[in-house]
Amino acid sequence: MTGRLLEAARGVRWYLREVTGEAKWDAYLARCEAEGCTPMTRREYERHRADHKERSAQGRCC
Amino acid sequence: MSTTTETRPGTAPGGRPRMTPASIALWGGIAVVGAVCWTVLALSRGEEVSALWILFAALSSYAIAYRFYSRFIATKVLGVDDTRATPAERLDNGVDFDPTDRRVLFGHHFAAIAGAGPLVGPVLAAQMGYLPGTIWIIVGVILAGAVQDMVILFFSMRRDGKSLGQMVREEIGIVGGVAALIAVFGIMIIILAVLALVVVNALAESPWGVFSIALTIPIALFMGFYVRYLRPGRVMEVTGIGVALLLLAIIGGSYVEEMGIADALTLSKESLTISLAVYGFVASILPVWMLLTPRDYLSTFMKIGVIVLLAVGLVIAAPVLQNEAVTDFAAEGNGPVFAGKLFPFVFITIACGALSGFHALISSGTTPKMVAKESHVRMIGYGGMLMESFVAISALIAACVIDQGLYYAMNAPAGATGGEPGTAADFVNGLGFTISAGDLTAAAQAVEEETLVSRTGGAPTLAFGISQVFTDAFGGGLAAFWYHFAIMFEALFILTAVDAGTRVGRFMLQDTVGNVWKKFGDTSWRPGAWIASAVVVGLWGGLLYIGVTDPLGGINQLFPLFGITNQLLAAIALTLAVTLLIKHGKAKWAWVPGIALAWDLTTTMTASWQKVFSSNPAIGYFEQADTYRTAADQGEVLAPATDAGQMDQIIFNSTVNGVLQATFAILTLVVVANAAVIWFKGWRTGGLPTTEVPHQPSAIVAPSDFFATKEEKAAVREWEESRRERVGAHR
């Protein structure tokens, strides 16, 4: 029972991290490791993402 | 010419076998539940009907439509092909082209399409009774809205995520393309103005509401700085803090009286309009990380939270519908909330929730660039829209379970109700409903509002309904808190839409003008950005001001314009869908978007015709202007105008609305006419070349539906193993 609950909680956490974009950082680190390059700092990386959002506005529907 | 490769015969995509006896029993059961619910709804007249019949009729219909119709569209009509790499896979740059988990993308897509539209439209349409709205929301989404979202998502995905405007230009023609571009821009402006009008009507004379909404600005700023400077990237953490602060802001609002700021926060509609315009301008030129992004986190979480709460609350409270199945206004067309008969006006009032043209912009925006596998368009496009429709059904129920005397007192314009509880009670009694002045005052006090008379726009009515459902379901004398919680949630949505919409409008304007004046098209050039933002804000702000000050009632006058233009945009999107099917040599399947297009054109063109040419001044904009002009020329003042100035205002407003209405209808007809030429050519030759990107093999392995099958899970595991080995071998 607790095992099930724990699994569900882990699933929710995974989903929230993915949806909010927080997990993008992990994906970036993994990508860097796979390609063997040095990753930038988290601060720089998040700046990068914010700059990109700046240029690509998406409408919110009614 | 079609470049689609057929899937292997005998197996559906995803390799699912034919239906087992267990699944036949399950789907048979769902069909029986749906049939029973619909029968009860169809046969009940003048007796107590539980709202749950509507809820379960909706859920079972959605399940069946998703399982069978959307699957048919995916396999037969579109021919989704998981051996084909999506743009996200081919052009993966980890930023805008990024193969995304299907469930995550479903969340993103839903957050982008869901807003205030499906919440307020059904509330207004409740004037016709609960049945017309219920039928249109459910049947409309299954045959039109979800089809449009899915098909446009698919075609955009096959073209590297091209926008609706681009696709119309390249696939239909330059004339249609230009018409579509103007229509899209104009519709943005109208949508922003009407959404802002809903907020203004909800916040006017409501110090509690103004207090909580105003606090969302510093809260969002705090979140923006926190996640940029203090703890970069910790979005969940900051959203948690933000939501907690937001709830405190709602609770804090009940103390505005004690804090002695109630008078300062009691704002008129005019001052709110100016504040909103200033806010919209500043928000759209500030960097997104400061205000827009954090706001988006807040509104998304509030959105999901309220929708889940509402669904649970409805099931627990199981309220009884107070509304009639079909009211007399449906046949006579003389309802006080908006004028006109059931046909065509129910179909344009419930815009989002059944069919929304605006979604075609999202389905051809960021979503198609993130789809990992082609089969995902089904759950994201069709499934996402079903969820939006469910929100609309919940809103309809919330409006139909409140006292109907109160409903009309809240939703009839001030010109009709006189704005006071006494006169409003008389007006409502005159309509054939009963409510006393005392009841009206008591209802306002229960939610700690100054008054509920003529709080048009749908948001206050929905908030009242939600508050009633939550109080029944969860108990505990929190009616005022729930009311303001619901107002906050709607206003938050709308302000996010206003931020984002102004910014998108600004980019569209800069892009278009950039074709003739290059410098202006550079979005990082400050003066250009400021001018474009000011123009966009000026346009919607101007229209908002017209709505706010209209003596005939802004919602009454502008909402039909909003509904019709949104549906006209849908007509453009569906026209594109039909065109592409014909060009791909699939004319035999063109009826799938075709029936939606035919119905949409029938309702919107009838509505446009009536709004432009009707000889009934309550419906036809020009007749309305004429009536008032004739009276004004003879020095008369017609109610609800109170002086010559208001007479002139009505004449001006009605003329502007009429011209806008006619323009959008003509633009849509231009696109359809342009497309008809292509249809004829394509039909004669059996297909035409299109801009579809040719097949390239896909390497990604992913399940295709919400829940992965055992085989799919195994395949994903195997694929991930092999990838890890490859990476290991590299080092």
Can you give keywords for this protein?
heterodimer, A: 62 residues, mainly alpha, 3 helices, 73% helix, B: 731 residues, Amino acid/polyamine transporter I, 2 domains, globular, disordered N terminus
Count of spatially separate domains of chain B: 2
Which percent range describes the beta-strand content of chain B?
under 5%
Determine the mean pLDDT of chain B: 93
Largest interface: A-B, 33 and 54 residues
Provide the low-confidence segments of chain B as ranges: 1-14
The chain-level mean pLDDT of chain A equals 89
CATH superfamily of the largest domain in chain B: Amino acid/polyamine transporter I
> Distance between termini of chain B?
45 Å
- Total strand count of chain B, please? 0
The ordered string of helix (H) and strand (E) elements of chain A is HHH
| Helix percentage of chain B | over 70%
Overview of this protein structure:
Helix content of chain A is 73%, strand content 0%. Chain A has 62 residues and is mostly helical. Chain A is flat. Chain B is mostly helical and 731 residues long. Chain B has 2 domains: 13-206 and 266-685, Amino acid/polyamine transporter I; 703-731. Chain B has helices at 21-43, 52-78, 87-90, 102-113, 117-125, 130-157, 164-171, 174-203, 207-230, 235-253, 256-259, 262-265, 269-285, 292-317, 328-332, 342-349, 358-363, 376-400, 404-411, 414-417, 421-431, 437-446, 459-474, 479-514, 526-549, 554-583, 591-613, 621-633, 644-685, 710-730. The A-B interface holds A 15-22, 24-25, 27-28, 31, 34, 36, 42-43, 45-47, 49-50, 52-62 and B 94-96, 101, 103-104, 107-108, 112-117, 188, 191, 195, 227-228, 232-236, 239, 287-289, 293, 296-297, 351-352, 356, 358-359, 361-362, 365-366, 493, 496-497, 500-501, 503-504, 506-507, 523, 566, 727, 730-731.
Secondary-structure map with pairings?
The complex is a heterodimer of chains A (62) and B (731).
Chain A: H1 2-20, H2 24-35, H3 42-55
Chain B: H1 21-43, H2 52-78, H3 87-90, H4 102-113, H5 117-125, H6 130-157, H7 164-171, H8 174-203, H9 207-230, H10 235-253, H11 256-259, H12 262-265, H13 269-285, H14 292-317, H15 328-332, H16 342-349, H17 358-363, H18 376-400, H19 404-411, H20 414-417, H21 421-431, H22 437-446, H23 459-474, H24 479-514, H25 526-549, H26 554-583, H27 591-613, H28 621-633, H29 644-685, H30 710-730
Helix pairs in contact in B: 1-2, 2-6, 2-18, 4-18, 5-18, 6-18, 6-26, 6-27, 7-8, 7-26, 8-13, 8-24, 8-25, 8-26, 8-29, 9-10, 9-14, 9-24, 10-14, 13-24, 13-25, 14-23, 14-24, 16-26, 16-27, 18-23, 19-21, 21-22, 23-24, 24-25, 25-26, 26-27, 26-29, 27-29, 28-29
